[in-house]
Amino acid sequence: MQVNPMSSAGGAIIEGIDLSEPIPENIQSDLMAAFIKYSVLVIKKQNISEEDQFRFCEIMGGLGVRGKPLGMRENDLDSEYEGAIHLVTNLTEDGKALGSFGDGEVWFHHDGIFKEIPDAATVLYALAVTSTGGETVFANMYKAYEKLDPELKCKIASLNGLNVYDYGSRGRVDLNQDYSKLNQCVHPLIIRHPKTKKRALYVNPLMTARIVGLSERESDELLELLFQYKDDAELLFQHKWEVGDVVIMDNQSLTHARNDFPAGEPRMLRRTLVKGVPINR
Ligand SMILES: [Fe+2]
């Protein structure tokens, strides 16, 4: 197995493994070590079944299931696999969406930050990709934390954020409406990564709606400062998708976003989750 770093902000391309075959134990630990070091692994030219993708999740920490309630899910795959599979796609069947996050840009976010125990990682397998655009952009949240002004680090050290997500929403939830039924969870603004024990900033513009205990105005001002990572080229790297790519991304040391792409071009990623552990400060 070869590991080739993608950028100074993180990510690595893995060559020499075939995820459609059982992975020997020594390679499993090499994969885990590379994942902990680089936060994103891109494994090219794969041809894997649902079961192969589950097996990969198992060796990377255990298969997780999505938070979206059964009645709200888009397709039959979800019931067949009890929520372990989710299609990220703009494709439709008989006029009905086959999956979610259909078209367009998606703001930076951590998958699962609105859950009590967020998913440790997300695995995506590319089945259809667009001719241009649609790249996944990653932001290194260890570096985002390290780069904060020392005074600001101190100020937010004991603060928590309320993370709210409205399925299908393209922007931050407005807390001036009744949001009691939306998925939500309070987590620290700075977390300690369960594996590396390093601190990482844990806020994102799509889902972190309010800093707990601050007025709306104070919270918005502070969040604006903390969201600056999204424009900091030193922290960012991206993946341009090709069919057959398998990508695993860490949901505690990274946020990710999606670039816009041409409407009408089919795009489909098969998504599974690696289960997480409770968040610690
Ligand atoms: Fe995501």
Q: Can you describe what's shown?
A:
The protein has 281 residues and is an alpha+beta fold. The protein folds into two domains: 173 residues, Clavaminate synthase-like (Double-stranded beta-helix, 4-Layer Sandwich), CATH 3.60.130; 83 residues, no CATH class. Helices cover 19% and strands 29% of the residues. The chain is built from six helices and 19 strands. The strands form five sheets. Strands 1, 2, 3, 4, 5, 9, 17 and 19 form an eight-stranded mixed β-sheet that branches. The radius of gyration is 18 Å and the shape is globular. The relative contact order is 0.25. The mean pLDDT is 94. Fe (ii) ion (FE2) binds next to loops.
Please provide a brief summary of the model:
Helix content is 19%, strand content 29%.
